[in-house]
Structures are given as C-alpha cells and as structure tokens.
Design a protein that fits this description.
alpha+beta, Beta-Lactamase, 4 helices
C-alpha cells in the first residue's frame, strides 16, 4: 500500500470506528475493531485482556475472527508485546500477525492481535504505524466502555 493509500484507508477506518462506537454496546467492540481495521487490509482483529495477576491474556469473543485460546504472558509473542510495550510482528503463512500493546496512561490492559494478508511480504512502515494508531483508539474505546459491561472490566 502506498503512503497515500494508507492515509486514505486510515481515514476510512477512523470513520468506521467513530460511527460504530456512537451507540455500540461494549461487547460489540471486537467486531467493530475488525470492521475498522479491514479498511487497512486486516483480516482479523482480536482483543486480549490481561488478568489481575498479569499472567494470562484472554481473548474477547468476536463474530469476525476464529476462536482463540488464552495465552500466557510469559513465553509468548503477545506477552512480549504486553511487557515491552512494543509492537511485535511475525509471519503467519501468507499473512503477517501484529501484536500491539493495549495501554492507557500507565495501565497495561492487554494486547491486540491484528492479522494482515500480505502474501509473505513484511508490513510497510506507514501501514504498521496506522495499525498501531488504530490500536490506540480501540484501546481508548475499550476503557471508555468498560463501566457499561460485565463482559470485561
């Protein structure tokens, strides 16, 4: 994706998030996140929340992603993103998997898994940054809505 195409797609993703979050119930956020990130070419987005002891990452249910299992914070790429507060990228067949830390101020809340079909090519710098920026907004929406749900705290 060219830098101009990324900028246009990022603007579209923001519009999707803003329009969809207006009357959204908190448990709709994982699907809204996937719909928004699809504007940037993502096939799946999964939100993982950390437990109180910060040992396990639990995926939030989504209708638009294959079911996931809990992950250990220790010894996983997701855990490395969580502790280092740095995005982690790996190859996943013909896709790239990006693990983004979910952070609000100094509170670590989990990680965001973003799967982008790339036909084996690495993510471009602009696309990666757009996904990181989108992840920050998704995290903010999670925090804002957590007082209105019992699905997560």
């Amino acid at each position: 994706m060219t830098p101009d195409a990324v900028a246009t797609a990022f603007a579209a993703a923001l519009r999707v998030l803003l329009a969809g979050s207006h009357l959204m119930s908190p448990d709709e956020l994982p699907d809204l996140a996937t719909t928004a990130a699809s504007e940037l070419g993502a096939a799946e987005v999964v939100l993982y929340l950390v437990d109180y002891e910060q040992r396990r990452l639990t995926p939030l249910p989504s209708n638009q992603a294959a079911p996931r299992t809990e992950l250990s914070v220790d010894g996983s790429l997701a855990g490395r993103a969580f502790w280092s507060l740095q995005a982690q990228e790996s190859e996943a067949g013909d896709s790239r998997r990006l693990w983004l830390p979910m952070l609000v101020a100094i509170e670590r809340v989990g990680v965001l898994e973003v799967v982008v079909p790339t036909e084996g090519e690495p993510l471009g710098v602009e696309l990666r940054q757009a996904l990181v920026d989108l992840g920050h907004l998704i995290t903010e929406l999670l925090i804002v809505n957590r007082t209105y749900t019992d699905v997560y705290e």
